Amino acid sequence: MMDKSKRQFLNRVAALSVGSSLVPYSSIAQAGINDQPPRKNGMPGKRWAMIMDLRKCIGCQACKVACSIENQLPIGQFRTRVDQYEVQDNANPNNIASLMLPRICNHCESPACIPVCPVQATYQQNDGIVVIDNNRCVGCGYCIQACPYDARFINKSTNTADKCTFCTHRLEAGLLPACVETCVGGARIIGDLKDPDSHISQLLKQHKDDIKVLKPESRTHPHVFYIGLDNAFKNRVKGQSAIWQATQESTS
Amino acid sequence: MITEILTPNIEISWLPWAVAYFFFIGLSITAVILTLPGILFGQKHLLGVTRVAMFIMLICAIVGPVALLADLHQPARFWHFYAHITPWSWMSIGAIFLPLYVVATFLYSWLFLRPALLENKAKRGIAGSISRILGMGSWQGQYLLKPVAIITLILAMIIALYTGSEVAIVASRVLWNSYLIPVIFFITALLGASSASFIIAYLMGEDSFTLNRLSQYNRWISVTFLVFLLIWFILAATTSGTEANALTQLKDSVQWQLNLVVLIILSLFTAVFSTSAALKLNLLATMSGIGISWFFRWLIFIDGQAIPKYGAGFYRYELPMGAEGLLGMVGVFGLWLFLAIIVYELLPWKSIMNSQVQVQS
Questions:
Q1: What ipTM is given for this predicted complex?
Q2: Which of chain A's residues have a Cβ under 8 Å away from the Cβ of B173?
Q3: CATH architecture observed for domain A46-234
Q4: What is the full DSSP assignment across A73-106?
Q5: A191 — phi, psi (to 5°)?
Q6: What single-letter DSSP state applies at residue B302?
Q7: Quick one: CA dihedral B19, B20, B21, B26, positive or negative?
Q8: Which residue of B has its CA nearest to A13?
Q9: How far apart are CA A152 and CA A147, in angstroms?
Q10: Could you tell me if A47 and A57 are in contact, meaning their C-beta atoms sit under 8 angstroms apart?
Q11: How far is A185 from chain B (nearest CA, A)?
């Protein structure tokens, strides 16, 4: 793999210096984003994933609190959260429903955040979990830009990129992630996709017609699956931003 | 109808320092192009343009990387870029070529100024001492100027390629993920470089030929910018690419409509008044040219990060007063001014014209 990287690098340097105008631009741009470096560490033979069962989430934000305490995040910064929406039926305005949408890093199969990291501080474990070596991270914020889900942020106390790790330290000790353990409705289910008998594998099979992921068109193959997600929430929400009225966009 | 009830306001991770880096490095690499006709093709009448563009190239090549370092949240770890080289990341490629480019600009301006340094060796006082130190012997090095100019140009184009691509490949940001971004970055940088060169030329007391030439450049580059803005809109309206997504997301926002109006007014002002007979209007037009270069980057980076990737509406950004905001930007322009004064006063920018003309003939 190292040899391949070296070869690619030399090719690219040659391409850049010999005359960039002669090289099709798209081939270079693709190389910058599509290459996934080799996976390392983690639990071999497993592929961790999570199901968010929206029918069971009540928006109590206990997951957010549990995560903050477990992972010792600075006040006001969160690795997980539950967004809340009000949905009104256009034909019948009295018909109003709420949606609680738990959000977390999607631990994608082709993460957009990893190939951009200039120092290989963020990487994917063999078990699919995307983590950050915050002793190596330079805090350039490039991964934060690349993530299609706004799942990453600069941790104000470490000044490095930070995100959900599926509580990999707890999984390795045989425990559930803090958010899963605390979820009162049992809306978060974590498990190993490579084990056909695991609860998550069974649920995915059982609900296969109703399983959705966020922003599937970003082709990152997210591994956080939603049950009960309406198509209106699959991609960017076309709605009214209630918080910042001054800059709201049109409603639909 | 969907109404957002609870969602966080995501903070930006590329700070105004990133705007400053892309602004200064853009000015520097495009100023290299402006220096070339006087050096490579022996166009002596363009040596005035060469001199001021070289000045811009040099000062901006120092200030840009300082701003870049400040944009890292862990600036002391910059050496990790070299300990963990990552050829598949544009930023890592940039980290390799940026120092090479900065060294090339030093070498290029040193070789350009050297004939004057050699002449000033016999002088008394600071000018003489500096010339004796920086002259480094009395060997003739003029033959190195052209090859070094070409190397600097190649490195500058690599920087243009990496800075543009680094932004354009970010698929998750609708405004960034466009092949037009590297091109428009380049055009607006060239406009900034040419405009800044005009102001320096005015301050250095260049002849009217040089001033006219630079104002012609300004006029046509700002027209080119408008053309590319139009191409962006044509792409957005006729294709289904990211430009179209960006237009859909932004077209109803009053702030973005205003942003666009300001960009167009500034460009038209630069295009119309760059070549006006009134010097004051020329100077205002060049200020507006520099403004476009800065403002375009500000829109792409700061306002661009306020466009949610998933949520509705926009995130709110308020410019902080401290080092991550206003004070930082005042500081980085202060650094530019400080370096400009030092470099202008200590190096023979004034006498180099005569020396170069003599050397070239």
A1: 0.93
A2: 145
A3: 2-Layer Sandwich (3.30)
A4: PPTT--S-EEEEEEEE-SS-TT-EEEEEEEE---
A5: -175, 180
A6: I
A7: positive
A8: B93
A9: 7
A10: no
A11: 20
Residues 6+ apart with CB under 8 A from A111: A36, A124, A130, A147, A220
Q: What does the domain layout of chain A look like in residue ranges?
A: 46-234
Q: What is the pLDDT of residue B37?
A: 94
**Rounded alpha-carbon distances, angstroms, from residue B333 to B15, B247, B326, B330:** 16, 33, 11, 5
| Residues within 8 A of B (CB atoms), A 98-117 only | 98, 112, 115-117
Specify the pLDDT at position A17.
42
Q: DSSP for B216-251?
A: HHHHHHHHHHHHHHHHHHHHHHHS-SHHHHHHHHHT
Cα–Cα distance, A109 to A220 (Å, whole number): 6
- Shortest Cα distance from A198 to chain B (angstroms)? 31
Q: Which residues of chain A have pLDDT under 50?
A: 1-2, 9-31, 33, 246-252
d(CA B115, CA B184): 37
Q: CA dist B125 to B121, B122, B249, B339, B340, Å?
A: 10, 10, 62, 21, 21
Mean pLDDT across B246-253: 92
- For residue B264, give Cα distances in angstroms to A215, B30, B103, B174, B331: 34, 22, 37, 21, 29
Q: In angstroms, rounded to a whole number, what is the distance separating the alpha carbons of residues B27 and B24?
A: 5
DSSP H/E element including B343: helix B326-346
Say whether residue B352 is in contact with chain A using an 8 A CB cutoff: no
A230 touches chain B (CB under 8 A): no
The widest CA-to-CA distance across chain B, in whole angstroms, is: 81
Rounded to an integer, the average pLDDT of B29-42 is: 95
pTM of the predicted model, to two decimals?
A: 0.91
Q: B155 burial class (0-12, 13-18, 19+ CB within 10 angstroms)?
A: buried
Residues 6+ apart with CB under 8 A from A194: A45, A46, A47
- Region for residue B123 given its phi and psi (left: phi exceeds 0; alpha: psi -120 to 50; beta: otherwise): beta
Whether B174 shows a pLDDT value over 90: the answer reads yes
Phi first, then psi: give them for residue B220, nearest 5 degrees.
Answer: -75, -30
Output the furthest CA–CA distance in chain A (Å, rounded).
Answer: 66
Over residues B273-302, the mean pLDDT reads 95
Instruction: Please give the Cα distance from B237 to B300 (Å, whole number).
Output: 19
Q: Tokens in use for B256?
A: 């973005």
Q: What is the CA radius of gyration of chain A?
A: 20
pLDDT band, residue B259 (cuts 50/70/90): very high
Question: Which residue did the predictor score with more confidence, B211 or B121?
Answer: B211
Who's near B44: CB < 8 A, 6+ residues apart? B38, B357, B360, B361
Contacts of B252 in chain A (CB under 8 A): 249-250
